[in-house]
Amino acid sequence: MKLKHIAIIGSLFPILFSLVLFFGVLISADSDDENSNFSSGITGMNLSAEVLKHQPMVEKYARENGISEYVNVLLAIIQVESGGTAEDVMQSSESLGLPPNSLDTESSIKQGCKYFASLLSSCKNQGIDDLNVAIQSYNYGGGYVGYVAGKGKKHTFNLAESFAREKSGGKKVTYTNPIAVAKNGAGGMAMEICSMWK
Known about the structure:
This is CwlT-like lysozyme domain-containing protein. By secondary structure, this protein is mainly alpha-helical.
């Protein structure tokens, strides 16, 4: 039963992004103000001020990596990963094989954008047209792209659960993320899916 809870937690990552992006687009589309800008759409996505202060740097590195159209997703990643308050705001040090929280803020954003671009490219190269696969892979590691490619090319709850179970060997650790606690109670149990940046 605990394994199922882990898969729920893992599956919440892309669902959370989808909801954030959906409401952002909905609010942006509803605006009749011709002077509304990109920032107002992002504000409608309930991103914290701490996250929004990183927007110019995210735009810069997204542009450098050819993924400017994913700035909203990248900002949502920052919101979920750190709330914009940690120095390694995108928690991207592990994608370089470094210990967690090893990067300064600019290096984190630079690497996070580069890594997300590589995940999008990997999805495209493997015939995957599901943004949720790239988003989940940001959290699970690039191996998830290949896993999904061989199992229908669409992110599903069952695939996330299966991948987490296989990669963790079923090992569970206490996970106190607020989403996990809300779903699973004070223990917030989760499978150990760390260090899967291979």
